[in-house]
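FAQ
Q: What does a multi-component entry look like?
A: The components come first, one per line:
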Amino acid sequence: AWPGRKRRWGGSDENGASRKPVACPFYKKIPGTPFTVDAFRYGAVEGCSAYFLSHFHCDHYGGLTKKWCRGPIYCTALTARLVKMLLSIDSAYVCPLELDTEYVIDGVKVTFLEANHCPGAALIHFRLSDGKTYLHTGDFRASKSMQLHPLLQTGRISLLYLDTTYCNPKYKFPPQEDVIDFVVRTAQRYLKKQPKTLIVVGAYSIGKENVYLAISQALEVPIYTDASRRRILHSFGWPDLSKRISSCNQSSPLHVLPLASLQHEELEEVLGDS
Ligand SMILES: [Zn+2]
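Then the predicted structure of the entire assembly, as tokens:
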């Protein structure tokens, strides 16, 4: 993720004039292989015969459209479902891979590891026939269990592709469990004080599920969200989440909204409707 950075997009500028796509940066190419990671907005990348997608966030899949025909897209099964459902990519190009399973692709051993980011997000581990190993993180959240993964415990990583917004000691985040626990306790406290409190969680199309699922479980209330997000959440195939999703905004004090709508006027409207 690159918040606050001005992105350079291929395609057309503000005047609608079409521009040549920018060249694929080196950090999206895996040396000694015909692979790229999260490189869909650079037109046809020379020498690339397999395109890896780390997760389904638009700053990573940007450039993928239903016209895609440049080569196979390797991603996790959950990401594969989203790519087909939301971007209408021809399924002939979508190649789902299981986590923690070694695949040989173009002579390279490839393993996806849980990235602890959004649903379907993976770290990608490449082992070349010359023994070199590369780890491309995509967006991820480091954790103890990740550090203990056998692939990261044994052997060296020759080159680490680190995609991180917060690589600075001034960012010291507590473990995710502590954050979720805090959010749940805060929601409970406010509801106790004012039973009509509306709890709003802002989220991109995917992400934050662990937060609102925990609130829903602790408060024993359904999760209300709009039809497009309901479709996405059901596609995860997570029974615990699916059974809590509601299409009725009156049914729950817990609403999940697009992140962009967490503004004062919009929230006032939401509060008025619920
Ligand atoms: Zn992301």
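Q: Is there any commentary attached?
A: Sometimes. For this entry: Residues 1, 55, 57, 117-118, 139 surround zinc ion (CB under 6 Å).
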